[in-house]
Structure formats: structure tokens, C-alpha cells
């Protein structure tokens, strides 16, 4: 049995950029403090929501360093360290370990992709070169590549491969993986709108986009489940569903940054090729924020 890196809710942090294009570290610090104030269990830095694909290597490692230093042990830190190059991923993994991160979040190789055998070699190689627990990240809508349950079973046998952020939306894969791997591979929901069904199947929590905006209810969603209050967890899952959907009207993190800016929460600009929300989806997002009494104008 593998002890999960964290149990509960982890916020996949946005990265605030200044109009000049530089990272706004003062704003980033305020974001971190707000998350800690509202009781999240972990933070993920340099993930998809953090626009990691447009970070330079220098920016990436500095951002991980800053996050670890600022949190100073108040919660777990997951460092996004994946790449479509195994050697680049290795560099990011080794740096994250040196920085003091608690775990590595490793997305499947994207664009060039690989075979299932290639996935096994990629992850086993990285796991052999680090002392940190690894969370695999399955998001085929972005990468064009998904794990199979058989591959998960093979990788679950490595002592440092701790679990999966499952964002495929494929419940058949989820159930098959749990049947194959049991307690040797922890699972976290990578989709806010599927959190409670995954918890009911045995997931250990959520890695959330929505908690950037509303950390308290997203933390309470998982906390209420684990203390046995299923009705409260169900109420939170269902009542916040329209907001979860609205924050994906366009590709993440475009809507979450727009929503945070509308609420006066510093979010910074997007890095191209990401662009501001189109008028129609933005109008619908603002209407949803008003419906939740988050926006008064």
C-alpha cells in the first residue's frame, strides 16, 4: 500500500504574468497566501493551469523555487515537471527535488507522444533518477496520448510512482485501473466536475482549477467526503457544477484568469498564443459569476 502524497484538495495554481511578459511574483505570493488561508491541502506549481508550456526552463525552475520557499512547509507542493523530452523532464525533476518540492507531477509526453512501452521506459527512467514520489498525469485531450490500465499496472509496481492525476474523463479506464492496481496506485480527480464520483470509487482527492477562484468550497468538497458527510459533498458538487462548467467555456486557463480578474483577484495577463475570452463565452461566464453572487456589477 502506498501512502498518498496528499488527501483532499490541491489547487493547480495559475501563473500571473505582467504586461511586460515577466512573472509577477508579488501577485503569485498573494495567490498562495489566499489558498493557504482557505485550507487547501496542496498546491501544484508549473502545471497546465500555470501555463507551463510557455515557461522558459529558467522561469520554470525559479517559479518552483519561489513557491516552495514561500509556502515553507505549510502544505504539500507538487511540481509540474513533465515534458515531451525525457531528458528535459529529468532536469526539471532533479531541480524540483533540490528545491524541496514534495512530489512531481509528470504529464505524458505530448506532440511526439510515444507507445505504451515508451511510457513505461520514460516513467521508470525518471523514477529511478529521483527520490521524490511521482504522480502521473493523464490528460489525452491535450497530449493526444492516454495510459492504458495495463500500463498503469506495470508502473504501479515502481515504489516511487505514487499515483495518477486522472483527467481523461474515462470512467471505464478508472475502474479498470483500480481493479488492476488496488492500493499500489493512488488516484486524484483532474476534473472538478467529476470529483465526487471519483471519490466514491476510491480517489484520494482533487487537483483543481476551480479552487483558484473559490478555494474554500472546493476544499470542503473533499473534506466533507472524507469525514463521512456525503450529503454535504454531494450538495457542493452539484451546486457548484455550473461554475465548474463555466470555467471551461474556453480552453483553460483563459476563463479562470478572466474570472479572477473580474473579482478583483490579481491574475495577470495570458501568454500567447492564449488570448482573452471571446465576447460570447465571456458574457456567459460573467452571468455565472453573478448567479453565484461572486460578481455584483
Identify the notable features of this structure and list them briefly.
single chain, 297 residues, alpha/beta, TIM Barrel, 8-stranded parallel β-sheet, 13 helices
Strand segment count: 8
Q: Averaging pLDDT over every residue, what do you get?
A: 97
Q: Please describe the biggest sheet, giving its number of strands, its sense, and whether it closes into a barrel.
A: 8 strands, parallel
Order of helices and strands: EHEHEHEHEHHEHEHEHHHHH
Total discrete domains: 1
Approximate shape: globular
Query: Quick one: CATH class?
Result: Alpha Beta
- Residue stretches low in confidence (pLDDT < 50, at least 5 long) are none
Secondary-structure content class: alpha/beta
Contiguous helical run count: 13
How many whole angstroms does the radius of gyration measure?
18 Å
Strand content: 5-15%
Could you tell me the CATH topology label. TIM Barrel
Please identify which CATH superfamily we are dealing with.
Aldolase class I
Strand order of the largest sheet: 7-6-5-4-3-2-1-8
CATH architecture descriptor text:
Alpha-Beta Barrel
Task: State the end-to-end distance.
Answer: 51 Å
Share of helix, binned: 40-55%
Amino acid at each position: 500500500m502506498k501512502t498518498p502524497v496528499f488527501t483532499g484538495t490541491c489547487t493547480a495554481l495559475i501563473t500571473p504574468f505582467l504586461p511586460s511578459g515577466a512573472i509577477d511574483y508579488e501577485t503569485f505570493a498573494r495567490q498562495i497566501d489566499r489558498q493557504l488561508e482557505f485550507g487547501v491541502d496542496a498546491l501544484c506549481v508549473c502545471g497546465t493551469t500555470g501555463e507551463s508550456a510557455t515557461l522558459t526552463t529558467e522561469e520554470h525552475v525559479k517559479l518552483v523555487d519561489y513557491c516552495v520557499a514561500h509556502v515553507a512547509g505549510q502544505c504539500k507542493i507538487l511540481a509540474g515537471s513533465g515534458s515531451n523530452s525525457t531528458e528535459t523532464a529529468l532536469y526539471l525533476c532533479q531541480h524540483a527535488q533540490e528545491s524541496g518540492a514534495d512530489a512531481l507531477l509528470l504529464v505524458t509526453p505530448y506532440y511526439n507522444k510515444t507507445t505504451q512501452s515508451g511510457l513505461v521506459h520514460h516513467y521508470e527512467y525518471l523514477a529511478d533518477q529521483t527520490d521524490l514520489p511521482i504522480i502521473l498525469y493523464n490528460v489525452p485531450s491535450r497530449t493526444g496520448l492516454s495510459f492504458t490500465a495495463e500500463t498503469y499496472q506495470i508502473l504501479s509496481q515502481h515504489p516511487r510512482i505514487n499515483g495518477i492525476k486522472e483527467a481523461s474523463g474515462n470512467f471505464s479506464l478508472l475502474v479498470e485501473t483500480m481493479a488492476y492496481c488496488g492500493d499500489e496506485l493512488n488516484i486524484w480527480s483532474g476534473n472538478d466536475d467529476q470529483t465526487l464520483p471519483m471519490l466514491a470509487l476510491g480517489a484520494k482527492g482533487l487537483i483543481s482549477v476551480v479552487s483558484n477562484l473559490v478555494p474554500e468550497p472546493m476544499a470542503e468538497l473533499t473534506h466533507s467526503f472524507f469525514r463521512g458527510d456525503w450529503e454535504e459533498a454531494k450538495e457542493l458538487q452539484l451546486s457548484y457544477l455550473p461554475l465548474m462548467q463555466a470555467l471551461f467555456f474556453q480552453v483553460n486557463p483563459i476563463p479562470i484568469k478572466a474570472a479572477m480578474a473580474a473579482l478583483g483577484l490579481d491574475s495577470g495577463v495570458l501568454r500567447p498564443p492564449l488570448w482573452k475570452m471571446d465576447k460570447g463565452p465571456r458574457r456567459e461566464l460573467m452571468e455565472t459569476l453573478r448567479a453565484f453572487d461572486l460578481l455584483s456589477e
